[in-house]
Amino acid sequence: MSPLVAYLVQFVLALLLAPLLPGIINRVKAKFAGRHGKPLLQLYFDIFKLLRKGEVISRSASFVLSLGPAVSLATALCALALLPLGGVTSPLAFQGDFLLAAYLLGLGRFAVILAALDTGSSFEGMGASREATFSALAEPVLFCCLLALACVGGALHLENHLSLSGMLGGRPGTEWLLGRSELLFVPVVLFVLLLVENCRIPVDDPNTHLELTMIHEVMILDHSGPNLAFILYGSALKLWFFAALPAGILIPDLSPWWAQALCWLATILLMAVLVGVVESVMARLRMYSVPRLLGGAGVLAALALILTQIR
Amino acid sequence: MLEVLFLFPLCAGLLTLLLPSRTVRRGLLLLVAVTHLVLSLLTLLAVGRGQTPSAFFGLMEPDAVGVLFLTLASTLFCAASWYGVGYLRDEALKGERTGFQDGHPFTNAPERRFTACLCFFLAAMTLVTTTRHLGALWMGIEGTTLASAPLIYFHRHQQSLEATWKYLIICSVGIALALIGNLLLSIGFYRPGLVMEEGLDQVGIFVDMAREVRASGFYGVQSPWLQAAFVFLLVGYGTKMGLAPLHNWLPDAHSQAPSLVSGLLSGALLNCALLGILRGHQIMLAAGLGDFSGGLLVFFGIVSLFTAATFIVGQGHYKRLLAYSSVEHMGILALGIGLGGSAVFGAMFHAVGHSLTKCMLFLLAGNILTRYHTLSSYDVRGLRWTMPMTGALWTAGFLAIVGSPPFGLFVSEFLILKGILSQGRWLVATCYLLALAVIFVGMSIPVLRMVQGTRPRDMQRAEPESACSVLPPLCLGVLVLCLGVYTPVWLENILRRAAALIGG
Amino acid sequence: MTGLLQLLLLVLTLNNLALLGVDRLRSLIRLITLQGVLLAGVLLALDHILLAPAVLIIKGGILPYLLNRTRRRIGAEPHLRPRFGYGWAVLAGMGGLLFSFWLEGRLPMPPGLFPPLLLPAALTTLFCGLVLVVGRVTALSQVMGYLVAENGIFLLGIPLMSAGAIWFELTLLLDIFVAVFVMGIAINHISDTFESIDVNRFHNLRD
Is the dihedral of CA C14, C17, C19, C21 positive or negative? Predict the structure, then answer.
């Protein structure tokens, strides 16, 4: 099978399976709490339901409001398309595409923030400001991690060490097994970033019902119908993207491509389970200690970067 | 002989912890002091004759510098413990009383522990001065810190506790840095494949290796390590020695400790720390890096001189005055040693003179403190009438410490000046003379004010001063005077040998 | 064995940065215990079979016990009070790490003496200890900083140890033990006399 077909199969699989991750997280949390919980496929049902519904738009809002969801979904799709899946190089990969991927996600966030501000509601403005703050803090940490990976690739003289496919394509992933144990810091940091970027519990509570404490959820209060479905699907894709990053580091090169793909899939699902566990055992952090969490992650990332530089 | 020198104070210290009777304890302290003095004088003579006494499989093998400082420490300990017998007798009668510094009541630490710690302190100093193993030297100096910290906290009030804590933390951390210096030296002399000689005369081994390397003309690999090592040794032991700007703890500890302890700290312990730096300098000289280490020493010496001068002028606290004067003299020592040549002999001579004088002055300060209950030199007046002997000795000691002619320190300071001038370093000479002049003026004002002036109204005229409180400083003073007038041949011989070891 | 050593040194470095970041006295003591255990592990990985148990007992057992006992006896308050923010302390630690890597690159290394990462890890430990001494105001945390610095020096000395000098290392351990013991006594007195172990209250002596 040609690599292109292998990649496309996995890409379609990712698109199909992405809404499963929130379902898994919710199921794990329910099990921890001793409940039965929502069905695993709840998000699929929600999305289909919302797609069929009409939309109510505030009179004070402009076209920016409806631009937000579309842009965020489109950028998430594009970013995912730059990611190698199952160790197979993305057909769109080029040197430096990690910058594009990171800023595509940034653009999507920017669009959602603009849409939130467009409604003119004070709650949504507050959520937007928090989202902007935390993501601004998270960005340097993400780049630290990616740079550390790029350095490993550079030291190995990989041709595409500056693209996501080179960084996460399995070959650098085998390095930690050969004694570069500082690379193990990177998935830990990326997991923290996953929690921050996707508004999971120690940072934001997706199930909260108090607008004052919300971050992400409060921003999309005014969206309804297909637009809300786009946002939900877009954030599921983003979760998949971030869950795939650690998989790219932890899973080494395996010979038949489907074995590696299966390992990736398992890791991604495992990440979802892990998020569920973290959400069940941890309380939400106070707003002002989130920067400290990100600072700790940043220190770890910087340490990994320094150590990879030195070797 | 050396075994006894080390083990006797140690065992006596342990024994004093068990002895119930005060009189016996004090007697034992005196016995330790006298025995130690006799034995160290014997060692001094033996080394002077060119023998190398050795003990504990070569762990203790003093050379000329070591034995010089050993004898000094021993002499001062003898004087201090003689003084201490009377001091402890008086202190035991006092019980709980009000501190004159802050008005809070305080008591003394148990005398038993004080006496024991004095003995341990002596044992640690013996180890420092007799060993040539850098690790043992380090442990000895750390030991002196630990043994002397309880001595500073004899009067249990806030001020002395604060001083003790600063002393403990700053010196411990400083000495830890010196340990890095030791390790870096070992790295510098590490040769892959070459099994290091497992000798205990580490300094000797390093000096030999450095000479070999120097002779072979290839020392690119080791010199950065050695330079780093010397910097760490200088900073580490320099903290303990009170070189500015690392001297912060020194005025506090020396002013709050009981006077006999201050005398020992200033006169004996600072020399021990200096010895640590000297060992490093010795190795650097052998490795051909003497200019580097000497330059650093000269720099720190001049900084210390100026810092001391700054703080001595206008200093209203007479024990702090003496402490800053110690900083000054440590600066002079560092300067003399760093310069090399004939100044090193002067520095060695200076070390002897300074130790004796400073201990004498601190003991006298103790007398004044007991009588006047104040540390402020403004409140002490009319020493001439109230305590004639102490007053006279205080004046004599002051003249000696600032380097006035009949005393030993004049000779040594003059020798150092001659050394500077013979090298043509005019800037250094100017700084040296300027600082000395400022210090002379700065010290003479409070000292003369204390001696002269009208005595306070409520103070009785001339109570007889006890022999224990006057005779030890008097003896030390006579020794300093003798040094200025006549230097015995054996002493000159030892000083020459000591100076020869460190580039003189 | 080298893989294990590398991992231990890595965890040690991480532990150092964590030391600067924690704000509770108890966590600090726990991290110091961990550091003692890690040191013992490093000794084992470098085949110092005799010394490792001694280090484990003294640095991983007795010293933390003493610290904990002092903490309980004087009823020390649970939070450390920093002189400057924890963030700055951690940044300083990172700076120390970078500096030690730079130093390692500049100094001519005697071949075969240091396993990779040991020198920077040791220097970072030392540096973090010094930051602890300077950057926290309680007397107890100053002692801990001293201990950490001492650990760093010990780590630096491990490759230089030879089988014959075990007695020397043991005496060194004993020395540190006595030092901490004496400091513990002093802290007890400080807590009695000043009713706090905050060294900012030390302002009686100055010029």
Answer: negative
Chain C interface mutation, best of B101, B121, B172, B200, highest count of C Cβ atoms under 10 Å = B172
Place of tokens 């929130």: A22
Count of structural domains, chain C: 1
Upstream peptide bond of B245 is cis (omega within 30 degrees of 0): yes
Give the model's pLDDT for residue B197: 57
Q: What angle do CA B276, B233, C147 make, to 5 degrees?
A: 105
Residue C118 is part of which domain span? 2-199
3-class DSSP string for B9-22: HHHHHHHHHHCCCH
In this prediction, residues A163-180 reach a mean pLDDT of 78
Helix B111-130 to helix B2-18 angle, to the nearest 10 degrees?
A: 170
- Residue B245 CB-density burial (10 A; 0-12 exposed, 13-18 middle, 19+ buried): exposed
Q: Find out whether B382 and B456 touch, Cβ atoms under 8 Å.
A: yes
Query: What is the spatial distance between Cα C21 and Cα C28, in angstroms, rounded to a whole number?
Result: 9
- Nearest-neighbour CA in chain C from B229: distance (Å): 12
For residue A213, give every residue at least 6 positions away whose Cβ sits within 8 Å of its Cβ, in sequence order, or none.
A205, A284
DSSP conformational letter for C79 = B
pLDDT digits (tens, 9 = 90+) for B312-363: 998 889 999 999 999 999 999 999 999 988 899 999 999 999 999 999 999 9
Residues C52-87: tens digit of each pLDDT:
898 999 999 999 999 999 999 888 888 888 888 888
Tell me: ipTM over 0.90. Answer: yes
What does the pLDDT read at residue B462? Answer: 60
Please provide the size of chain A in residues.
311
pLDDT-derived band of residue B217, with 50, 70 and 90 as boundaries?
low
Contact A202, A284 (CB under 8 A): yes
Give the tokens for residue A120. Answer: 């003119």
In one letter, which amino acid is B312?
I
- CA dist A25 and A20 (Å) reads 9
Question: CB distance C6–A181 less than 8 Å?
Answer: yes
Which residue in B158, B172, B198 is closest to C194 by CB distance?
Answer: B158
For every residue of B399-424, DSSP letters joined together read HHHTT-TTSHHHHHHHHHHHHHHHTT
Q: State mean pLDDT over B176-183.
A: 90
Q: Could you give the CA distance from residue B188 to residue B200 in angstroms, rounded to a whole number?
A: 18
Q: What is the least distance, in Å, from the CA of B427 to any CA of chain C?
A: 30
Instruction: Indicate whether B219 pLDDT > 60.
Output: no
Domain ranges of chain B: 2-501
Structure tokens at A97: 């595409």
Question: Per-residue pLDDT for B447 more than 70?
Answer: yes
Q: Searching chain C, which residue's CA lies closest to the CA of residue B164?
A: C186
**Three-state SS for C65?**
helix
Which residues numbered 56-115 in B keep a CB inside 8 Å of some CB on C?
101-102
Residue B218 is encoded by which pair of tokens?
A: 């290839």
Mean pLDDT of chain C: 87
Which residues of chain A have a CB within 8 Å of the CB of C19? Answer: none
d(CA B127, CA B145): 13
Across the interface, do C146 and B176 touch by the CB < 8 Å criterion?
yes
